[in-house]
Design brief:
Elements (H helix, E strand, L loop, with lengths): L13 E8 L8 E7 L6 E10 L2 H8 L15 E9 L11 E4 L9 H4 L25 E3 L4 E2 L11 E5 L3 E4 L5 H6 L3 H12 L7 E5 L3 H12 L4 E5 L4 H7 L5 E3 L1 H4 L4 H5 L6 E4 L4 H9 L7 E4 L13 H5 L3 E4 L7 H13 L9 E6 L3 H9 L5 E5 L2
Parallel strand pairs: 10-11, 10-13, 11-12, 13-14, 14-15, 16-17
Antiparallel strand pairs: 1-2, 2-6, 3-4, 3-8, 3-17, 4-5, 5-9, 6-7
Helix pairs in contact: 4-5
C-alpha cells in the first residue's frame, strides 16, 4: 500500500513562502512567494533545511550575456533537506528521508557511471541543463505565472525544490544538517580531487593554488593521505592561519615573492601534486610549472573565468608531467558521499572548520557580501 503523505501536500502545488529569486544578474536576491509543482516521474520534492553559498553560484549570478544568463532564476546547489513527496517510479527515496542534492548526476546505469575511470554520466551529464534534466521544463512559477529557471539541477535557495533522483543522495537523519550541506559540492570536490583524481600517497609534496573552501578541502584530503609538505598559495595572508587547521605547512604569497621559484626551491625541484582551485589559465600554467619533472601531476579544479585557453610547454609533457581536470573531485555521489559522511562521524575529516558564518534565510544577501569580501569559507543559510 502506498504511504500516506503526512503533510497532505503530495501531488499538489505548494505555495512556497520562502524563495530567494534573482531577477537580474548581479542584483541582490529577492525573497518571494512562489509556486512549486509536485514532482514528476523519477523526481522528488525536497523541503530544504539549510543551504550554503558556493563560488559557482556567484559566478553564474554575475553572468549577464550568453546561454547561461537565465533570469529570473533560483540559485543554490549546496544543501540538505527532507523528502516531502516522491513522483512515479521513485523507489530509492521515500517521504521523510534526509537527502543531499548534488549538481553532478549519478544514474548508476550508464557506461560512465559503471566505470571506475571517472564520474561522468553519459545519460544526464553531457551539459549543464537550465531546467529539469528529463523534460527540460521548470517546476517553479512566480505568483503571476512566470517561469522561474532552475540552477545546476538543484536550486536550493528555496524552502521547497524539485530534484531528479540522479541528483540526490540519501544520508543518515542523525548527521548534522549544516555539515551534510557541505558535502553537496565544494568540500567533497576538494577531498575527492586529492583522493580519487590525484590519489596522493604518504610522503608526497603538494601545492594548492587558491585557499578557498575547495583548496582547503584539497589540503584536508592531502593531510589525511599523509603528505609531507602542503604548500598553500594565496594573496590573502590570513589564509595561512586558517590553512594550518587543514594541514597547510607552508604558505606563499605571490605578491611578496616576485619571480622567485619558491616552490621548486623548498621541494627540491617541484611538487609531486599541484592543484589549481581558482579558475585562471595563468595560475593553471603556474601550477603545472611548479610540479616535478618526470612525474608531477597537476589537477585543475577551477573553472576558467575568462574562457582563456591553457598554454603549456609540451616538452614537459613528453618528460612525464601530466595535467588533468575534474568535476566534483571525481566522486560518484551516491557511493562516495556516504563514505565521506561516515569518515566525519568517525572524526577523521574536519568539516566544522569550513563553517565560518551562519545566517537566516531572510539575510541570504549577507552571505553573498561575506563571500565577495573574502571573509567566509562557507556561510550556512538556515531556512527556518
Amino acid at each position: 500500500m502506498e504511504k500516506q503523505n503526512r503533510s497532505g501536500t503530495a501531488g499538489k502545488v505548494i505555495r512556497c513562502k520562502g524563495s530567494a529569486v534573482c531577477r537580474n544578474p548581479g542584483e541582490p536576491l529577492v525573497i518571494e512567494e512562489i509556486m512549486v509543482d509536485p514532482p514528476k516521474a523519477w523526481e522528488i520534492r525536497i523541503k530544504i533545511l539549510c543551504t550554503s553559498l558556493c563560488h559557482s553560484d556567484v559566478t553564474f549570478w554575475k553572468i549577464s550575456i550568453g546561454p547561461f544568463a537565465l533570469f529570473p532564476r533560483i540559485f543554490g546547489h549546496e544543501a540538505v533537506g527532507v523528502v516531502e513527496s516522491v513522483g512515479e517510479h521513485v523507489e530509492e527515496f521515500q517521504e521523510g528521508d534526509m537527502v543531499v542534492p548534488v549538481f553532478r548526476p549519478n544514474c548508476r546505469e550508464c557506461r560512465d557511471c559503471k566505470s571506475q575511470k571517472g564520474n561522468g554520466c553519459s545519460i544526464f551529464g553531457d551539459k549543464l541543463v537550465a531546467e529539469m534534466p528529463r523534460d527540460g521544463t521548470s517546476r517553479f512559477k512566480g505568483m503571476n505565472g512566470e517561469t522561474l529557471h532552475h540552477f545546476l539541477s538543484v536550486s536550493s535557495f528555496s524552502e521547497y525544490t524539485v530534484v531528479d533522483v540522479v541528483h540526490v543522495v540519501k544520508i543518515s537523519s542523525e548527521f548534522p544538517a549544516e555539515k551534510a550541506c557541505l558535502l553537496s559540492c565544494g568540500v567533497s570536490s576538494g577531498i575527492g580531487a586529492a583522493w580519487k583524481v590525484a590519489d596522493i600517497e604518504e610522503g608526497s609534496t603538494v601545492a594548492i593554488f587558491g585557499l578557498g573552501a575547495v583548496g582547503l578541502a584539497v589540503a584536508e584530503g592531502a593531510r589525511l593521505r599523509g603528505a609531507s609538505k602542503i604548500i598553500g598559495v594565496d594573496l590573502n595572508q590570513e589564509k595561512f592561519e586558517i590553512g594550518k587547521k587543514f594541514g597547510v605547512s607552508e604558505f606563499i604569497n605571490p605578491a611578496t615573492c616576485g619571480e622567485k621559484k619558491v616552490i621548486k626551491e623548498i621541494t627540491d625541484g617541484g611538487v609531486d601534486y599541484s592543484f589549481e582551485c581558482i579558475g585562471l589559465a595563468s595560475l593553471m600554467e603556474e601550477a603545472f610549472n611548479s610540479s616535478r619533472a618526470n612525474w608531477g601531476k597537476t589537477v585543475i579544479l577551477g573553472v576558467e573565468m575568462h574562457n582563456t585557453p591553457l598554454a603549456i610547454n609540451t616538452y614537459f609533457l613528453l618528460r612525464g608531467r601530466t595535467v588533468t581536470g575534474c568535476f566534483f573531485g571525481g566522486l560518484k555521489a551516491k557511493s562516495d558521499i556516504p563514505i565521506l559522511a561516515q569518515k566525519y562521524l568517525h572524526k577523521e575529516i574536519n568539516l566544522d572548520g569550513f563553517i565560518t558564518h551562519e545566517v537566516n534565510f531572510q539575510d541570504i544577501n549577507k552571505a553573498f557580501d561575506l563571500l565577495l569580501e573574502g571573509k567566509s569559507l562557507r556561510c550556512i543559510i538556515w531556512m527556518d
